[in-house]
């Protein structure tokens, strides 16, 4: 929203400058420091930062991500963890934030890049739009897509597209981005707070996100040929150095949102979930000491999801382990997608026969990447030799892949919950004393949609199902 406003201000100033010029004095009246159009690169930092601020917000990625995916649990203010989300967070932070401050601004960035004849920035703009649309449709299901940004054409009540159509559009965007990101344009290194102006980083991000998107819908469509094409012909992440992550700055308001709320804001109710502790202790997983801090007794202790009356003697601020200091650091990165996640997705694809390649190699590489990120590489060989962890080619191999992916996604709350919804791994039980008897399958639509976009909202509900947390989105059915 900030850069949309800046764009309008620059545009108005430019028009005033043009209007004040007398005929024959154009050159005298031109001001090189007062441009008539905002360069596309100026919009980029805000779209990157806002998207991750939303995803790492404690009220979104924490409450409706990591708590639902059972990495986090709360010792107070835990209505959301009991599946009672805040409507204003869904509407203002998620829906409006992603549509207005990411997608709309990225669209404007692409239009400016087109006018500049800058292929690379056009590709970047498409990647950002595709990412935000993918998050929205995974959260809600059917969403406005084809008419979502039609305000200039007078479309103020956009229709909801089916999730299958939204995914087709997302895949098309990522294909176009892959073509446009060819190095013939330029990406300003200062503005590009993700890849420092390296177009190949964005190209790898586009194709890695496409692999994720294809796997998301793989139970509904045959995507094998497209997956194999990525493996054979496209640039993807090849190490942790490639992954799409925003490294936050050392002080608020540009620090990691978990730091800003939990450390700087002294809101320590977000703790470690007992499901995570149980699984990691069962495998002797050395990452547990990185994910969690000891409690007052010097041990790592989690809390189960849910419970109304907390804090209490059983679960409170001091006897449940806090989140590990690595993940509460101001400069902790915000992930669009990690290299480890891509490797686990490739392991699953190979295991299912969607792509050629060795599923075990992909699986082990995913674990290795996660261990490297968490500083426990020395324990890698012993860990994958554990009979409970080692890859197996039987049906249980999918469970192991799914569990290890779940473990690697720590603090990537929405993605943790989303991939759990898709795979069902690990086996999780609903929160205690919850409002529902199952873990939510989606977010409910914003209240404003039912009130202001009534016909489109009603059509979406008629098509998709009741506007409930328990209604499954298309790729889950």
How would you describe this protein?
By secondary structure, the protein is mainly alpha-helical. It has 2 domains: 1-38; 40-252 and 331-476, Serine Threonine Protein Phosphatase 5, Tetratricopeptide repeat (Alpha Horseshoe), CATH 1.25.40. It is 49% helix and 3% strand. It has 19 helices and 4 strands. A two-stranded antiparallel sheet has the order 1-3. A two-stranded antiparallel ribbon has the order 2-4. Helix 3 runs antiparallel to helix 5, helix 8 packs across helix 13 and helix 13 packs antiparallel against helix 14. It starts with a helix and ends in a 13-residue tail after the last helix. The model is unreliable at 1-30 (pLDDT under 50).
What letter string, H or E per element, gives the SSE order?
HHHHEHHHHHEHEHHEHHHHHHH
**Broad CATH class of the largest domain:** Mainly Alpha
Largest sheet composition? 2 strands, antiparallel
Structural class: mainly alpha
CATH architecture of the largest domain: Alpha Horseshoe
Give the C-alpha Rg.
23 Å
Domain count, please report it.
2
Write down the overall geometry. Answer: globular
Q: Which ranges are low-confidence, i.e. pLDDT below 50, for 5 or more consecutive residues?
A: 1-30
Tell me the number of strands: 4
* β-sheet strand percentage: under 5%
Query: Order of strands in the sheet with the most strands?
Result: 1-3
Number of helices: 19
**Helix content, binned percent:** 40-55%
Quick description:
It is built from 19 helices and four strands. The protein has helices at residues 2-19, 26-29, 44-55, 58-66, 87-115, 119-140, 163-180, 199-216, 224-233, 257-264, 274-282, 288-291, 339-351, 359-373, 380-385, 396-408, 413-423, 447-452, 454-464; strands at 72-74, 244-246, 270-272, 334-337.
């Amino acid at each position: 929203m900030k850069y949309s406003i800046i764009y309008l201000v620059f545009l108005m100033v430019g028009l005033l400058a043009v209007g004040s010029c007398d005929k024959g004095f154009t050159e005298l009246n031109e001001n090189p420091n007062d441009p008539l159009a905002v360069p596309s690169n100026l919009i980029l930092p805000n779209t990157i930062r806002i998207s991750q601020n939303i995803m790492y917000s404690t009220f979104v990625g924490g409450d409706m991500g990591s708590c639902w995916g059972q990495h986090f649990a709360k010792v107070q203010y835990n209505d959301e963890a009991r599946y009672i989300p805040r409507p204003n967070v869904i509407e203002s932070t998620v829906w409006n934030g992603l549509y207005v401050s990411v997608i709309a601004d990225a669209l404007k960035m692409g239009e400016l890049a087109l006018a500049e004849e800058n292929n690379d920035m056009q590709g970047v703009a498409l990647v950002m739009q595709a990412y935000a649309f993918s998050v929205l449709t995974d959260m809600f299901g059917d969403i406005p897509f084809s008419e979502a940004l039609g305000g200039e054409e007078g479309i103020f009540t956009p229709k909801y597209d089916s999730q299958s159509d939204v995914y087709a559009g997302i895949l098309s965007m990522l294909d176009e981005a892959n073509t446009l990101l060819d190095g013939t344009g330029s990406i300003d290194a200062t503005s590009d707070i993700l890849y420092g102006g390296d177009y190949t980083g964005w190209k790898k991000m586009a194709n890695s996100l496409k692999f994720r998107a294809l796997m998301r819908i793989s139970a509904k469509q045959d995507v094998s040929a497209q997956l194999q094409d990525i493996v054979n012909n496209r640039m993807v992440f090849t190490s942790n150095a490639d992954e799409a992550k925003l490294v936050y700055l050392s002080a608020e308001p540009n620090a990691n949102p978990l730091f800003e709320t939990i450390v700087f804001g002294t809101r320590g109710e977000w703790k470690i979930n007992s499901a995570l502790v149980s699984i990691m202790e069962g495998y002797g997983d050395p990452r547990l000491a990185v994910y969690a801090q000891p409690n007052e007794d010097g041990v790592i202790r989690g809390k189960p999801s849910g419970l109304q009356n907390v804090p209490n003697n059983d679960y409170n601020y001091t006897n449940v382990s806090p989140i590990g200091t690595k993940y509460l650091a101001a400069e902790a990165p915000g992930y669009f997608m990690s290299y480890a996640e891509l490797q686990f997705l490739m392991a699953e694809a190979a295991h299912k026969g969607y792509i050629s390649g060795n599923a075990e190699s992909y699986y082990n590489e995913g674990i290795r990447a996660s261990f490297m990120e968490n500083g426990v590489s020395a324990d890698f060989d012993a860990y994958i030799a554990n009979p409970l962890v080692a890859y197996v080619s039987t049906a249980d191999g999918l469970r192991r892949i799914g569990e290890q992916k779940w473990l690697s996604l720590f603090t990537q709350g929405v993605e943790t919950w989303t991939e759990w919804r898709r795979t069902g791994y690990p086996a999780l039980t609903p929160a205690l004393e919850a409002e529902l008897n199952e873990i939510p399958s989606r977010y409910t639509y914003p209240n404003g949609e039912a009130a202001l976009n009534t016909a489109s909202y009603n059509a979406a509900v008629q098509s998709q199902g009741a506007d409930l947390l328990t209604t499954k989105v298309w790729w889950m059915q």
